[in-house]
Amino acid sequence: MWVLVLVSLPLIVVTFFSRKLLPIITWVVFLAVVLFCNPSHQDFRFDMTIKRISRHRNWPSTFDMPEGHYHEPLSETELVDFLKHNARSLRVMGGMESYSPLIHSATVLNIKHLNRVKHYNGSHIRCEAGMTIKEVQDYLANYRQSLRGIGTYLDTTLGGAFSTSFSGRFQTSFSDHVTWARTLNAVGTSIEWIDDLFYLRDSMGMLGIVVEMELQVFPNRDYEIFYKQRDIGWTEPADGFQMNTHLYASQGEAATYRLLPGPPEFVNRQGSYWVMSEIYDFIYTPISYFIPIHWIGQPDARQTIRQLSTNDVPYFGLTYLNYRIPVEFCKAFLNEMEDQDGLVRVKYLPPKQACLAHHQSVCEVEIHIPNHKYIIQYESLVRKYGGYSHWGGYYEGNITKQIESFDCYVEFEKLRKKHDPTGRFLNNYLKGVPGAQYYWRSAGRVYVYCIVLALFVIVTIFSYWKQHITVCGRGRTLRKFKT
Ligand SMILES: Cc1cc2nc3c(=O)[nH]c(=O)nc-3n(C[C@H](O)[C@H](O)[C@H](O)COP(=O)(O)OP(=O)(O)OC[C@H]3O[C@@H](n4cnc5c(N)ncnc54)[C@H](O)[C@@H]3O)c2cc1C
Q1: 164, CA 20 to 30 Å: which among 35, 120, 399, 416?
Q2: Is any ligand 1 atom within 6 A of the Cβ of residue 135?
Q3: What are the pLDDT digits (tens) for 345-390?
Q4: Same domain membership, residue 107 and residue 8
């Protein structure tokens, strides 16, 4: 956006010197709208890539938090005290990156001060669960080691990644690599998880507050990438796979990753795409909300920054849907989805050892769309093909129906009641209370933005054109403009 501001600076200066009221007002209104009414977010900050963890709004700006009680325990002892000495319902926040209102609660605990590495032995690392993935990766970088199954944004916390369906483009999920965990139950008692990890993985904090976990670590690896146009639904063993396509296509550009034996020469973990996000927020999203523009250019899977884990282009303005579909139905599912503009990413994941996850190979269909009108249809299609939605993805229906659809649900529920008999770790969304989705819809902002933009373009062109005629009509002698 700053590039756009710099480019338009001469135009703004000329307008203000012209002292013509209408173009000046048009510019002021336009700049105010761009500043305070980002059509794709509630958040009006320019650079959406800036890390911002706020307790008032989740990271992707899909919902606001209710006013209430916010607590940052400085130690585990303080956290235990808090659990013991009040009976409030509460949710624990991680990086607040989930699109679904998993954290929506009047009482929120932020365990960011539980952020120490407890033990590292070359093959495993034991950490407190309030650490971010970036903090752990920075620690491991000293030993040329890395976590696996990590996603795009490294500000995700260990507790948050472990409790949702977090994964990256390599064919493994984050919680697959957790070998031990410790939680606090509803009354602050410490519980260790080894054999029962099957239930704790991807459980959205319903079984207790994860305070510590042990993770496998892996040597840093360089990798080779092969790019090819492939049919949607293509599968072949690979270390990592990502196809970028759209809902109108039957093919996409696929990047296949193969890990190499040696460590990489150069690892850059965080790319900067700040101009991209503004283009998506202010140009692509508002236009593609109304008319399909995918034909202008197909998204490119090629990326130049080398990174062991993953890197990504942030399509911030677009809603993040993420479905896991049994691999044999991947193509049928995509073909049956209602077409609309947006980016579709297809990845593959093997079966998982987790109750609330896939127990067969799945294709992960990640959809970033500006327009929300088909989401309920997509969700019933996911059910039809035996899939489920990423717990942190945008979900409009009643999420308890999805939770109950897992075969192990009865045992899961027994365990949940054992550790939390009063349901204090549930919020209305996880209880399936009707209307508990609290989602923000972008339509109003898109309309305001498009109307203001259209008026701005018309008035600006008209006034400069008139100005040009006047200048030309006076034999190119510059005229002093009056209001
Ligand atoms: C721009 C963007 C890109 C994304 N890219 C990816 C991607 O590449 N791959 C992917 O899989 N997902 C992705 N996501 C989704 C998101 O990162 C995941 O949902 C992630 O797991 C959320 O982690 P978090 O730390 O932000 O947790 P939060 O969203 O804060 O919390 C998630 C859940 O975990 C629970 N929780 C958090 N900490 C604890 C704890 N200590 N104990 C018990 N429960 C806890 C919370 O109560 C909540 O139920 C992306 C999101 C955004 C905004």
Answers
A1: 120
A2: no
A3: 899 999 999 999 999 999 999 998 888 888 999 999 999 999 999 9
A4: no
